[in-house]
Amino acid sequence: MIKISWEEYLADIDILVEKIKALDKKKILVGVYGIPRGGLIPAIIISHRLNIPLMSHTGLGILVIDDISDSGKTFFNMATQNFHSMGLTCSLYVRKTSRFYPELYVKQIDSDDWLVFPYEETSSDDENKLKEEHKLKH
Fold this sequence. Notes:
By secondary structure, the chain is of the alpha/beta class. It has one domain (2-137): Rossmann fold, CATH 3.40.50. 36% of the residues lie in helices and 22% in strands. It contains four helices and six strands. It is globular and about 45 Å long.
């Protein structure tokens, strides 16, 4: 299990914001959409840092974010459902074994360890349950 602190999480968001700012200016971003639930927190923070609105839908010119592309299933499903109107995809983290790599990400996770984000307060019983659920998915 890898616990991510608020300090590390916010620093990684800052790195992602800098990567977004470095994009070709032809890629105009009109908003940001956070994939529920994990993408909502980074979407709100990025919305404030880039001064672009938080959107309730995806589409062209919209940054689509999730906290992690773990198996890649969520991003993959969104991309196939919104093929012609999918915005720029990004995540803070991407698992090495993910079948979908977003266009922008901060860190690749090489291990199968479960990530615990700072907003996911857990007890040791919860942590054990999360570990078991993660093992069943892989």
